[in-house]
Amino acid sequence: MKAFISIFILLISSLGVFGQIKKPVPPKVIPPYSKSLQAVVVTTGDWTATRGEAQMFERKNAKSKWKKSGETFPVVVGKNGLAWGAGLNELPSDTGGRLALKTEGDGKAPAGIFALSTAFGSPEKPKFVKLPYTRLEEFTECVDDVNSNHYNKIVDRMKVGNFDWKSSEKMLEIGEAYELGVFIEHNSERQKGGGSCIFLHIWKDAETATVGCTAMARENIEKVLTFLDAKKNPVLIQLPKDSYAQFQTKWKLPKLTDK
Q: To which H or E segment does residue 181 belong?
């Protein structure tokens, strides 16, 4: 009888733990761009372009010159082009009055400098991936509900404790596009309505834009993931070509090379 009572109390206690509302995890600390030794650079023709090209760069230390790694390859971005995002760069004081900041659901990919912190995918972690990796499972979701405490986070619905969202991407259901990807640390402070769930991922094809992510052929996402090393604080630098030229010196961006 005593054993039964003990088990019953333990069960009730466990239900209390799993049912409690857990406090949201505070935003992660992201190293500044000056400490980055790897960069994936994406440039587009202008702010409304949906296609662009990407190059990878690396440097030995913060004072070294950036050197290109690998070949240039094509990408697609948001169906409505680019908009200034919340990243590691300071936003320009004057955007000309016509370049709005990225917002939730605007169909634009973020422009600026963003940490590339973690990878994800549907298979077991590939041996070539050096970033922390989340394997997508049935309850893996990226929350895009601006009123949720888990806004702009990848979570396991069965582990977060507080199901306070009404909208999310059920990532495993996306299929081929999310078989391999990288989380872009846009809006890492999770400002309400600032935009969420922005990734590097596999494209449908070279003509089909995204709703805000940056996508590429599977062979190229594999090259990117083989290249990226968490110890080197990798970043995505994403800008229209004219803006890249404008900020290249001020932000100490890699010098672009021909194909």
A: strand 180-184
Q: Indicate the pLDDT class of residue 4, thresholds 50, 70 and 90.
A: very low
Backbone angles phi, psi at 243, to 5 degrees: -70, -35
Under 8 Å between Cβ of 30 and 88: yes
Read off the DSSP letter of residue 113. Answer: E
Stronger pLDDT, 161 or 67, i.e. the higher one: 67
Residues whose CB falls within 8 Å of the CB of residue 170, separated by 6 or more in sequence, listed in order: 140, 141
pLDDT, tens digit (0-9, with 9 covering 90-100), for 26-37: 657 889 999 999
Report, as an integer, the average pLDDT of 234-259.
Answer: 93
CA–CA gap between residue 47 and residue 219 (Å, rounded):
27
| Statement: residue 258 has pLDDT above 90 | no
**Residue 92: burial class (beta carbons within 10 Å; 0-12, 13-18, 19+):** middle
Return the bridge partners of 101, or none: 84
In one-letter notation, the amino acid at residue 144 is D
Given this model, what pLDDT does residue 91 score?
A: 85
Instruction: Give the CA count within 13 Å in the CB-facing half-sphere of 67.
Output: 6
Residues 167, 207: Cα–Cα separation, whole Å: 28
CB atoms < 10 A from the CB of 229, how many?
13
Separation between Cα atoms, residue 199 and residue 244, nearest integer Å: 21
DSSP label at 29? P
Element (H, E) at 12: helix 2-19
